[in-house]
Design a protein that fits this description.
The chain is mostly helical. Helix content is about 70%, strand content about 5%. It is built from 11 helices and 2 strands; from the N terminus they run ααααααββααααα. A two-stranded antiparallel sheet has the order 1-2. Helix 2 packs parallel to helix 6. The chain starts with a helix and ends with a helix.
Length: about 240
């Protein structure tokens, strides 16, 4: 339990402040909106979500990368387990965010009606009124895993928080600016999938599978990078 508490203490730092302020800003945006003109629910569920994921990764790993990593590498504990714990914490916090904005949006506007995709062979989309945030979380889960693992892998590979932040935010910005047209199979937004489906029919399921496969591949690299203790120790000695 103490290891989990130590990981959670990562949020009690200057790196925990940006995601907190960011969420409060989104909450203020919901409550200050005109009740007769509800904002797009996917803005809170997807568009504004991925920068938060990147910020949370920095908050979780700043203690290890901001100090002498050699100390952590010489302790009798699993470095892979450390990364796994932080990953689970990240998923829990992201799920909490999804539940929070969904509840606030529902309380403000009465209902959450948005675009939802099916994981069936055709990957059909439809506008649905949801009673739970779970369908939205499930449809974005492969993209969430991809951008989180990409951010963490770059952080640990380069041993710099800013490198991971740049990688995650660069992917997010690239996807927004291109509307998913540059890398349609790697687009993280379902609204972009809807746009690109005009040229690539039934894109949703292949897109989600590619993102999930890429996330799993990066996880293998992440595991190899983090458990190589000599790499961390030599780096500190140099």
């Amino acid at each position: 339990m103490s290891l989990w508490l130590q990981d959670l203490k990562g949020f009690k730092s200057i790196w925990g402040l940006p995601p907190l302020l960011y969420v409060l800003m989104l909450g203020c945006a919901i409550w200050s909106s005109d009740p007769e003109q509800p904002g797009n629910a996917l803005f809170y569920g997807e568009l504004a979500f991925y920068p938060l994921v990147v910020m949370l990764c920095a908050a979780l790993f700043h203690r290890e990368l901001g100090g002498p990593m050699e100390i952590y590498a010489t302790l009798p504990q699993s470095l892979t387990g450390m990364a796994a714990r932080k990953g689970l914490i990240l998923l829990a916090v992201c799920s909490g965010y999804q539940a929070a904005w969904f509840t606030a949006y529902q309380a403000k506007f009465g209902a959450v009606t948005t675009l939802v995709y099916s994981y069936g062979p055709a990957g059909q989309s439809s506008m649905r009124t949801l009673h739970s945030f779970v369908p939205l979380l499930l449809q974005m889960l492969p993209a969430l895993l991809f951008i989180a693992v990409l951010t963490i892998t770059v952080m640990l590979a380069v041993k710099k928080l800013y490198a991971g932040l740049f990688a995650g935010l660069a992917l997010w910005m690239l996807d927004i600016l291109s509307h998913g047209s540059w890398l349609p199979y790697f687009t993280i937004y379902t609204v972009h999938i809807q746009e690109q489906s005009k040229e690539i029919p039934d894109l949703f399921l292949p897109n989600r599978l590619v993102l999930l496969s890429a996330a799993l591949g990066l996880t293998v690299i992440l595991n190899y990078t983090v458990q190589d203790r000599s790499r961390w120790i030599v780096s500190e000695e140099e």
